[in-house]
């Protein structure tokens, strides 16, 4: 093919950054100006369960099989791509732009279903960054960091809004919480509001982890004989990441299942979720 005289604009000016091989890739998406966006859409304070569920429906494990784990809280979500992924040849700009645009589109598409009586008043938009982590320890530490952040923010916000709802101004509430430890905050909730922080929804305290679990099913083969088949189930859990088992890759990162997952998910899951729970925790299959 003969190149035109203008082809140099691509050859000489366009550069692709490829993310280093043999590293887990984390894409973190964060809502832009969600302080204003949540106010404008009257999200409940400090946590709006529906808004968080809407974010969960955007977790892209079904769309992109190379994403093996996602963690979200507040207006952010982190997506972990398996370490050997060849998704778009590991081109950073492709990975980031696809993830953030897909996430945003699903957020807008699913809005009406989650908030049937709320008009979407302005377009939500998100930023995204990609970071590479060389091993499971650093991935686990990364996710633990995000979860600790979720805990610190949620505990602060729970106290802050309880104080404001009880009649303090926002400035007074801020002053009351200045310099308080985590233990002080728990005591404040217990003494002033007879609240046990641990009774708050696990989704608020621990954020949402999305991953595939294996389910064994008996299906009929081509000859009509029953045979066992393992299928990946997309699961959302509100659990401690620090104790989560990433080490046995088969638990969450079964690569052969990964290849199958995109088509199987389609076939397996209608639009409705089922759930089960105990205590303040529960798990359910994500409606996609
Ligand atoms: N009321 C309410 N607000 C929420 C909820 N989840 C997120 N937010 C808001 O979203 C903000 C997220 O924090 P940031 O990402 O630091 O703030 P931001 O306004 O999005 O700022 P940038 O990310 O820098 O654009 C919180 O401070 C809240 O104001 C929710 O469930 N309820
Ligand atoms: Mg934000």
UniProtKB/TrEMBL annotation:
The keyword DNA repair does not apply. It catalyses: a 5'-end ribonucleotide-tRNA(His) + GTP + ATP + H2O = a 5'-end phospho-guanosine-ribonucleotide-tRNA(His) + AMP + 2 diphosphate + H(+). It comes from Digitaria exilis. Residues 137-242 form the Thg1 C-terminal domain. One of its GO terms (molecular function) is magnesium ion binding. PANTHER family: TRNA(HIS) GUANYLYLTRANSFERASE-RELATED (PTHR12729:SF6). Adds a GMP to the 5'-end of tRNA(His) after transcription and RNase P cleavage. Its cofactor is Mg(2+). Gene3D superfamilies: 3.30.70.3000. GO terms for biological process: tRNA modification. This is tRNA(His) guanylyltransferase. One of its GO terms (cellular component) is nucleoplasm. Belongs to the tRNA(His) guanylyltransferase family. InterPro entries: Thg1_C_dom, tRNAHis_GuaTrfase_cat, tRNAHis_GuaTrfase_Thg1, tRNAHis_GuaTrfase_Thg1_sf. It is found in: Nucleus. The keyword Transferase applies. Keywords: GTP-binding, Magnesium, Metal-binding, Nucleotide-binding, Nucleotidyltransferase, Nucleus, Transferase, tRNA processing. Residues 6-134, 245-285 form the tRNAHis guanylyltransferase catalytic domain. Pfam families: Thg1 (PF04446), Thg1C (PF14413). Its EC number is 2.7.7.79.
């Amino acid at each position: 093919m003969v190149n035109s005289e203008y082809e140099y604009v691509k050859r000489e000016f366009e550069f692709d950054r490829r993310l280093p091989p043999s590293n887990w890739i984390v894409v973190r998406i964060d809502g832009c100006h969600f302080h204003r966006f949540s106010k404008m859409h009257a999200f409940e304070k400090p946590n709006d369960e529906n808004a968080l569920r809407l974010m969960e429906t955007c977790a892209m494990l079904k769309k992109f099989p190379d994403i093996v784990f996602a963690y979200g809280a507040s207006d952010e979500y982190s997506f972990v791509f398996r370490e050997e992924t060849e998704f778009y040849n590991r081109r950073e700009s492709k990975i980031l732009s696809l993830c953030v645009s897909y996430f945003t589109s699903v957020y807008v598409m699913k809005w009406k279903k989650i908030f049937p009586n709320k008009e979407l008043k302005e377009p939500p938009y998100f930023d995204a960054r990609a970071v590479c982590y060389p091993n499971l320890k650093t991935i686990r530490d990364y996710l633990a960091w995000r979860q600790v952040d979720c805990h610190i923010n949620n505990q602060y916000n729970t106290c802050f809004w309880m104080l404001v709802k009880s009649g303090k101004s926002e400035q007074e509430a801020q002053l009351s919480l200045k310099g308080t430890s985590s233990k002080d905050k728990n005591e404040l909730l217990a003494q002033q509001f007879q609240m046990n922080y641990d009774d708050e929804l696990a989704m608020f305290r621990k954020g949402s982890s999305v991953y595939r679990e294996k389910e064994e099913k008996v299906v009929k083969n081509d000859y009509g004989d029953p045979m066992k088949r393992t299928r990946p189930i997309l699961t959302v859990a509100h659990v401690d990441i620090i104790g989560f088992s990433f080490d046995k890759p088969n638990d969450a990162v079964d690569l052969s299942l990964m290849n199958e997952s995109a088509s199987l998910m389609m076939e397996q899951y209608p639009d409705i979720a089922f759930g089960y729970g105990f205590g303040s925790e529960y798990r359910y299959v994500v409606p996609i």
